[in-house]
């Protein structure tokens, strides 16, 4: 009880302020949220690395701008077009100013996003194919990189360009004090490209910006081992959302960014910043509208425009979206005072959450979380406002991230799960081999799905991330959510670790903002820090688990049986019920769909819970009742005498399912009650769907009805009571 009370005290704003003093932006953070982000009332939004959220005044100012001013196509020369051209150019200048550089140093090429910017570099970089005369160009990248960076290999591979994946620890460990000279003839002019993220989108680790000059000067690996001219692509998409980037001090050759990561709006707009010194190297084959000075239709002749932005922005740019960036910069400056303030605010929230989460223990002393990071959140220059982790149960087994995600949704907590388009980091932190990736694919797991565990091993993890609108209350609600739902009681804390982290926080909390945002003295890299290492599946055998359960003296009693004949409608309680090949007979056999055949759930249509189905096995009927409606009955099985039912296809959890329409009469009944066009469909008796999760080799597949994942769902009464308390207290 004492440690539980200590946890409660830790989850107070007073305790937070003792740990971190750089909170907010001079005004009440809650007031900012209530004024500018009314749509997130009662929502704990923790996916700012996915996208931050735009303030409502940004949209209002943008709307006022485009309704007050006349913006024409910038390729014309009339007054409205000139207005657009001048405004777009001022936005380019503002982007450069934000990154502490100038038009003399860099050019801004607008793209459809960061991925499009990366593809532009891949397609236009002057790759040299390997041949008998020379080794050719190298495409090198940190293994902790976004898929869109690694995907450049799809362009370079067919051209005979060498590929060098670089482990994070190798960059400095394999550095050489005597860089290669550039005096060995033509081979020294061969261009090579090294790509790395300013901040990992997986763990939030910030890689030293000094790598830029280190690679360019061929002091760091891999540049120190390969002659040629080295260029650096710095992926800043994740970094610039919460951190200041100084391109004058760290002049990367190519810098792709996405603006929705910074402002939340507009989406689908990014930019590639290109250092003017290297702009002339980029090659371009296709030419679109507005990119050429002259061309001929009957000859292979065209002359590109001299300025790099004009040369690479094919067609009409998204000029209204670009103009909206002015209002994004205005809002950011108005609400926060600048990127240094944002960095301190968000890092403090992440540091506080990390400290408590890493100290949470189950009643038996086992850790609650395994956190994937390379530091102890000591300095904002080496760690972003991102925490990546998996939860562990009291036996040390990983709790599937899909379970956590679904539970979080019930509490209006928005987080991210999976591998976050960063397979390299996911493999390294979760210790997943290449062969396991291939085996997981054969087992049915693909990027972005909900298969979170295969043979007890995690396929991904959970990520929470903070933005400038994040508040202490977000941390508080998240930590209480973990403690209330995933910790075996009584809750315990790792006291020694907590005292050490609190002591470090107290000391560093008094440091200046400059000290907290300056890179510390380099130290040996640790690619994986296991705060609480999860045991392998062999560590806890099924026999040992059952023995532990038995020795605990706990027994389970089945108290209620509920049938849900129609997906997302009310339950039908029984005291006994026959089993069928898909579980409880007729459970989840029907579902309601809209006019497009999309399944309706209570998330989309809450009134579904007011429809009460009742099954009568004696009369072979399904009876539907709802307030204000006459009851309606339909047969459990399709009558052989009735006209052929209309078959259709729908989707359940990504699976295509074949269904049968239950007819116009029940469709009209449902449409009247729900006040929108909809139909009732039934799983086709000729269609079989199998369970994906938890299937072992050699075991017969388990047939499913229209349920999400499994034939049965067991819920303990404590969870129901907790949920009821939550609903009552809302």
**Could you say what the CATH architecture of the largest domain is?**
Alpha-Beta Complex
Number of distinct beta strands: 34
- Number of self-contained structural domains: 3
Secondary structure category: alpha+beta
Strand count, sense and closure of the main sheet?
6 strands, antiparallel
Rounded to the nearest angstrom, the radius of gyration is 29 Å
Strand residue percentage = 15-25%
User: Which runs of at least 5 residues are low in confidence (pLDDT < 50)?
Assistant: 182-187, 520-540, 640-644
What is the residue-mean pLDDT, rounded to a whole number?
A: 89
Keywords: Molybdenum cofactor biosynthesis, Pyridoxal phosphate, Transferase
Modified residues (N6-(pyridoxal phosphate)lysine): 261
Family: Belongs to the class-V pyridoxal-phosphate-dependent aminotransferase family. MOCOS subfamily.
Catalytic activity: Mo-molybdopterin + L-cysteine + AH2 = thio-Mo-molybdopterin + L-alanine + A + H2O
Short synopsis of the structure:
This protein has 730 residues and is of the alpha+beta class. It has 3 domains: 2-53 and 340-539, Aspartate Aminotransferase, domain 1, CATH 3.90.1150; 101-331, Aspartate Aminotransferase, domain 2 (3-Layer(aba) Sandwich); 561-726, no CATH class. It is globular and about 85 Å long.
């Amino acid at each position: 009880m004492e440690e539980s009370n200590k946890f409660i005290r830790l989850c107070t704003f007073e305790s937070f302020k003792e740990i971190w003093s750089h909170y907010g932006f001079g005004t009440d953070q809650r007031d900012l949220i209530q004024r500018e982000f009314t749509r997130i009332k009662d929502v704990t939004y923790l996916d700012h690395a996915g996208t931050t959220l735009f303030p409502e005044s940004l949209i209002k100012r943008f709307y006022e701008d485009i309704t007050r001013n006349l913006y024409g196509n910038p390729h014309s020369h009339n007054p409205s077009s000139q207005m657009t051209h001048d405004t777009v150019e001022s936005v380019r200048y503002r982007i450069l100013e934000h990154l502490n550089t100038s038009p003399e140093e860099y050019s801004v090429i607008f793209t459809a996003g960061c991925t499009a910017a990366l593809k532009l570099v891949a397609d236009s970089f002057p790759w040299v194919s390997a041949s008998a005369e020379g080794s050719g160009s190298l495409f090198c990248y940190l293994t902790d990189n976004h898929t869109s960076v690694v995907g450049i290999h799809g362009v370079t591979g067919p051209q005979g360009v060498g590929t060098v994946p670089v482990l994070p620890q190798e960059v400095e460990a394999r550095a050489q004090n005597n860089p290669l000279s550039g005096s060995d003839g033509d081979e020294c002019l061969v261009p090579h490209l090294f790509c790395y993220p300013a901040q990992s989108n997986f763990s939030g680790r910030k890689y030293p910006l000094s790598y830029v000059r280190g690679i360019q000067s061929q002091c760091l690996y891999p540049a120190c081992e390969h002659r040629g001219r080295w260029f650096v692509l710095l992926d800043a998409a994740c970094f610039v959302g919460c951190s200041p980037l100084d391109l004058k001090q760290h002049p990367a050759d190519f810098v792709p960014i996405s603006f929705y990561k910074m402002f939340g709006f507009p989406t689908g707009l990014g930019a590639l910043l290109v250092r003017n010194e290297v702009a002339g190297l980029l090659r371009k084959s296709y030419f679109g509208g507005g990119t050429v000075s002259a061309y001929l239709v009957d000859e292979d002749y065209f002359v590109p425009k001299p300025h790099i932005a004009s040369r690479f922005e094919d067609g009409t740019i998204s000029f209204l979206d670009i103009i909206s960036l002015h209002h994004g910069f205005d809002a950011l400056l108005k609400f926060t005072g600048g990127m240094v303030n944002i960095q301190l605010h968000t890092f403090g929230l992440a540091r506080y959450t990390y400290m408590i989460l890493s100290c949470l223990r189950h009643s038996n002393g086992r850790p609650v979380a395994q956190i994937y990071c390379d530091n102890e959140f000591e300095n904002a220059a080496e760690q972003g406002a991102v925490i990546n982790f998996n939860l562990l149960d009291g036996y040390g087994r990983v709790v599937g991230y899909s379970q956590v995600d679904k539970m979080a949704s019930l509490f209006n907590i928005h987080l991210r799960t999976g591998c976050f388009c960063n397979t390299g980091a996911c493999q390294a932190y979760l210790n997943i081999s290449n062969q396991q990736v291939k085996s997981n694919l054969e087992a049915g797991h693909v990027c972005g799905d909900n298969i979170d565990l295969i043979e007890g091993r995690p396929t991904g993890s959970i990520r929470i991330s903070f933005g400038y609108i994040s508040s202490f209350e977000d941390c508080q609600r998240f930590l209480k959510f973990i403690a209330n739902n995933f910790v075996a009681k009584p809750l315990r804390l790792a006291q020694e670790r907590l005292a050490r982290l609190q002591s470090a926080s107290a000391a560093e909390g008094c440091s200046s903002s400059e000290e907290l945002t300056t890179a510390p003295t380099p130290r040996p890299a640790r690619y994986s820090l296991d705060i609480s290492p999860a045991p392998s599946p062999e560590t806890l055998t099924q026999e040992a688990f059952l023995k532990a359960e038995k020795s605990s003296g706990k027994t389970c009693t089945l108290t209620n049986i509920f049938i849900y004949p129609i997906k997302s409608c009310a339950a039908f309680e029984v005291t006994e019920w026959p089993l069928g090949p898909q579980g409880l007979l007729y459970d989840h056999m029907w579902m309601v769909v809209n006019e497009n055949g999309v399944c309706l759930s209570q998330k989309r249509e809450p009134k579904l819970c007011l429809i009460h189905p009742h099954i009568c096995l004696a009369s072979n009927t399904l009876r539907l009742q709802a307030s204000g409606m006459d009851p309606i009955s339909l047969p459990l099985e399709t009558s052989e005498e009735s006209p052929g039912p209309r078959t259709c296809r729908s989707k359940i959890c990504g699976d295509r399912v074949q269904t049968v329409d239950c007819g116009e009469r029940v469709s009209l009944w449902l449409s009247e009650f729900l006040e929108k066009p909809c139909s009732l469909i039934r799983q086709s008796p000729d269609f079989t769907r199998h369970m994906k999760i938890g299937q072992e080799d050699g075991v017969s597949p388990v047939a499913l009805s229209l349920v999400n994942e499994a034939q049965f769902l067991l819920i303990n009464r404590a969870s129901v009571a907790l949920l009821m308390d939550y609903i009552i207290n809302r």
